[in-house]
Specification:
Helix content is 78%, strand content 0%. The chain is built from five helices and no strands.
């Protein structure tokens, strides 16, 4: 397997996980999703955004390896617990959401606000 093919496969896998994360978020609000799938989705999401990890991030390689393994495995488990029809519906909605055009004006506005706030605080403390 060539390096280019390996990188291509990794990118496709990352896109699939990203779509499934959005689909799980949508499915967690669906009344047809079992409560235990909703609960596990909440646990996986909380672990993903929590600053507390099983292996602290300051430990070289292993610190980030747990995030690269545990979170995707948790997402895959949640996806398997959600009924196929519900997941298919929300995967389609998640795919459509990623196809929407990006607002460059909104991005520029947010960046401008951050710069103004940064300059304000820098001036205030200097």
């Amino acid at each position: 397997m060539t390096t280019t093919r390996l990188i291509s496969n990794a990118r496709q896998w990352a896109r699939t996980i990203k779509r499934d994360v959005h689909a799980v978020w949508l499915a967690a609000r669906d009344p047809h999703t079992p409560w235990f799938a909703k609960a596990l989705a909440l646990v996986v999401a909380a672990y993903a955004v929590s600053p507390i990890d099983l292996i602290p991030d300051f430990i070289p390689v292993l610190g980030y390896l747990d995030d690269l393994v545990i979170v995707p495995l948790g997402i895959l488990l949640v996806v398997r617990l959600i009924p196929y029809e519900v997941m298919a519906e929300h995967r389609e909605a998640a795919s459509k959401a990623t196809e929407r055009p990006v607002s460059r004006l909104a991005a520029a506005t947010v960046i401008t606000v951050w710069i103004i706030c940064s300059l304000f605080f820098a001036r205030m403390f200097m």
